[in-house]
Specification:
The protein is 36% helix and 23% strand. It is an alpha/beta fold and 235 residues long. Among the domains are: 61 residues, Translation initiation factor 3 (IF-3), N-terminal domain (Ubiquitin-like (UB roll), Roll), CATH 3.10.20; 83 residues, Translation initiation factor 3 (IF-3), C-terminal domain (Translation Initiation Factor IF3). A four-stranded mixed sheet has the order 2-1-4-3, covered by helices on one side. It has a four-stranded mixed sheet with strand order 5-6-8-7, covered by helices on one side. The longest helix has 18 residues. The N and C termini lie far apart (144 Å).
């Protein structure tokens, strides 16, 4: 009989994923001496762990091991709870700033009715308004594929109707029995408000300026006979 072949047991190494290691804090620090750093990053010096803990208690701060491999380990005085909160806020803000591209698909048929087309058009506008790209797919059946111009006309009409919300990123292209067109969202422009704002900011016409000056001028004094010049009674 052959000698049994020994196999390595790798089940334990594949079962768990590595987890980000958190620093040792306060009583979890095992070193007898540490290089102590103040909250602003200044060097305090090498202190015993008991003295470092006493100083942390006096300042109502935590001891956080920031360089465990150093000899002696580097420990910093800080408000660890506040530090972790600020880290989570920064991470959340970074995730918000990340751009996430989502492509939604809306399918059409060459023989689509007007009511169905209107429903799908509204769906495309909603997706574009939410900031997502839209893949418009025209599916052909049987001999419909011999007239791709019908599908291209429907997609072109769709692009014209939703041009306020999106623009063509990929022109209609036939691939087998389907034609695809990709629309990308555009920033909506408030043209009505901008036009009104421009009209409000326009200077008055030159023909109107003298009239305003005349209205602001003082009224002429009455003549000897008490007549009013504006009515032409002195003539």
């Amino acid at each position: 009989m052959g000698r049994p072949v020994a196999t390595a047991d790798t089940t334990t190494t594949r079962r768990f994923r590595p987890i980000a290691k958190e620093p040792r804090v306060n009583d979890r620090i095992r070193a007898r001496e540490v290089r102590l750093v103040d909250p602003d990053g200044g060097q305090i010096g090498i202190k015993s762990i008991e003295e470092a803990r006493w100083l942390a208690d006096q300042l109502a701060l935590d001891l956080v091991e920031v360089a465990a491999d150093a000899r002696p380990p580097v420990v910093r005085l800080m408000d660890y709870g506040k530090y972790k909160y600020e880290q989570s806020v920064r991470a959340r803000e970074a995730r918000k700033k990340q751009t996430r591209t989502v492509i939604k698909e809306v399918q059409f048929r060459p023989k689509i009715g007007e009511a169905d087309f209107e429903v799908k058009r509204q769906r495309v506008e909603r997706f574009l308004g939410e900031g997502d790209k839209v893949k418009c797919t025209m599916r052909f059946r049987g001999r419909e594929v011999t007239h791709p111009e019908i599908g291209a006309a429907i997609l072109s009409r769709l692009a014209e109707l939703v041009e306020e919300y999106g623009e063509i990123e990929l022109m209609p292209r036939l691939d087998g029995r389907q034609m695809t067109m990709v629309l990308a969202p555009v920033k909506r422009r408030d043209t009505g408000h901008s036009e009104r704002r421009e009209r409000d900011e326009e200077p008055a016409d030159e023909a109107q300026v003298p009239a305003v000056v005349e209205d602001a001028a003082p009224a002429p004094e009455a003549g000897p006979g008490g007549g009013d010049d504006e009515t032409g009674s002195g003539e």
